[in-house]
Batch of 2 targets.
Target 1
Amino acid sequence: MQCPNGCLMPMEKTKEDKIFYRNNEPIVVTDLTMYVCPNCGQESMPLSSARLVEDVLNGKIKSAGKFIAEKYETSDIYA
Ligand SMILES: [Zn+2]
């Protein structure tokens, strides 16, 4: 996968935990395959991961349990 910002280096495949919102409730998807540009840090979600997230958001994939974590709102900390 090529970086959308036009960097020459190929993007690196990585696994990430991502938070999404379903009906205003946060849900976490762990070990989601993502691509990260080693040059500029741009992240890109491959189609396979996008489909998986879509299935999760549509309730097609069974939950593996509850996820509870501390929440930090950064938007107004350094405003
Ligand atoms: Zn890049």
Target 2
Amino acid sequence: MERTLFHGSTAGKQLLRFPHPDQRFGPRRRHPCQNRCVKKLVFIPAWNEEKSIEAVIADAREHVPGADIMVVDDGSTDRTPELARRSGALVASLPFNQGVGAAHQTAYIFALRHDYEICGQLDGDGQHPASEVARLIAAVENGADLAVGSRFAEDANPGVPEYRSTFARRLGQRLFSLLVSTSTRQTFTDTTSGMRALNVRAMELFAERYSSEFAEVESLQQAVRAGLVVEEVPVHMLAREHGNSFITPLTSAFYIFKTLIVLLIGQLRPKQVGQ
Ligand SMILES: Nc1nc2c(ncn2[C@@H]2O[C@H](COP(=O)(O)OP(=O)(O)OP(=O)(O)O)[C@@H](O)[C@H]2O)c(=O)[nH]1
Ligand SMILES: [Mg+2]
């Protein structure tokens, strides 16, 4: 039985067909990376990141050798796609801005279509050192379906100044951690982290359904409820150097409220795989 299913972003909705989850999630596939080269994609969601995109691409190339690098340009109105192309990255340009979830989902769909086995992702604003993403990819090679970089996990930043954010965002982070950890019965300390690595099982899940707005938080709940192995890895992240944060105290508060509703609804959805 096959079905076409999408909700959330419009990325590739009309094009993909996936088998039913019961057929998809067969026995766990591990990566036999000892004896052959695993096909890897590192992708960078970017919306108007012309000041940092070239450095981010160079960093990814240096620290994840052998991986293809793709920038998902989320309807940028600056020179982001042009600079990314000039740096030798693959560039997928969305026709208009759709939110970071659509950019992620575009990359998952692309990766599946082109037989990538592992996908690493880092932000285009320079906050995510590619050396840390390489550690997440290693976690997936060692058996995790989804590895998430946590800037708040205990041993994340030995000798490095603690990652700082606004009060409202810290409050939101705490709340999301509490809710996601309770709903999944697994401890998560950084539910909004966009620094991740995934294998095919996780990409298939998210290619089918992925929220454009609540991408990071909801996807953790979704992955655990689908029976995937989700691992948090302590990482070091940097403060944004260029460009504007799109997040204000008011939008944070509204986002927290909306995310609570989304998590509650997620909790009511039937589990895809018995755990
Ligand atoms: N906010 C936002 N970011 C997008 C969008 N589309 C792609 N992105 C990219 O997604 C990544 C994460 O967005 P950020 O705004 O940096 O989110 P954040 O890291 O949680 O917030 P900051 O700490 O303020 O930087 C960046 O590389 C953006 O360029 C979008 O529609 N909105
Ligand atoms: Mg950022």
